[in-house]
Here is the input.
Amino acid sequence: MGSTTPHPKFPPGYIPNWPHLASWDSESAAYTYMGLTVITTIAVLRNGFFFANIKHTKAVYIYLFLWCLFRLTAFGMRGHVLHGNNGENLDTYKHTQIVLSIGFMPLAEALTLNIAESSTLIYELSHRTYIRLRILIIFLFLTFGISLTAFVIDFTMNKPFGANAKDYATDLILREVGFNGLFLITIYTFVAAIRNAIAITRKKHIPTEYVTRMRKMMWIVCGQSALMMVKLGYITYRNWNPQELKEEWVWYMWSVTPEFLYVLPCLRHGFVLSVFDDVEGVVGEDGEHTDVALQAAVLEGGRVGAYNGTNPEKAADCVVVSVETKLESFEE
Here is the structure.
C-alpha cells in the first residue's frame, strides 16, 4: 500500500523525492524483480501458446500473463520513479503504488479456477454445475476486486501522503471487503485442495494412471494458497499496524517473493498443469462430454486390453468392442 510516513511540511519551493522520503528507494531491487518477471512472462507465454491444449489451462495461463503484465508495469514504473529526480513527481509515485497494490489479484483467481476444474473432474460434476461455479467465481472476484481497486485508487490519489485508512470510513469499508474477501477465497482454496487430494482415490473418477499427478497438482495448489495467505496476512497486519514491518526489504520478502514462489511450478507445463490436459482427454472437458457409463466402457476396455499388451491390435479391439456394446445398450 502507500507510504505510512506522516505527511511532513516543507519549506516553500522545496520538492521532496517521495520514494526516498518513504524509505522505499531500492532501484536495484525493482529492476531485479522486473528481470525475474521478464523470464516468467516468456515461460508463461510459451506454455500458453505451445503446450496448453484445453480451455482451462489456457485460461490459467491468461491469468498468469495478466499477473506478469501487472508486475512488469509496476517494477518498471518503480525503477523509473527511483531513478534520478523522477521521484519528485508525486503523481507518478502514486500511480506506481496503485499498480503495485492490485497486481496480485490474477493469482487468486487462477487458484479458484484450478479448484473448480479439479473438483469437476474428481467429483464428476456436470458441465452446468461447472459453469455455475465459474459464474460464482467471476461474481466474487468482481465484488472483491472492484472494492479493493476502488479503495487503492481513492486512498492513494485523494488522501494526504502518509494518511491512515482507519480515518476514512468509506475507504476502510472498501479495503476490508476487498482484502477479507480475497483472504477468505485463498483459505477456501487451501482447504479445498486438501479435500480434493484426499478424495481422488476415494471417488475413483480420475483414470488410475493420472491419480498421482492430479494429487500432486492439488498439493501444489494447497502450497500456492498458503503463499497467498502469507502475503495477504502480511498486508492485513500492515493495514492495521501501519508503523510496523514497513521496511522495504520486509515488503519484498513477505509480499512480493510469495508471488514468485507461487508462479514457479507453472513455468514448466509438464510439471503441473499438463495433468488437466491429459485427464480431460479421457473423461471430457469441464464435464461437458461426461458420460459415466461410456467412460467406464472405455476404461474397462483399456484394462482388458492391458492383458493383451503383446498384441496392440487386439488391445485396441477390446476398447472398441466395449464402447460399441455400451452404445448398443443405450439405443435399446
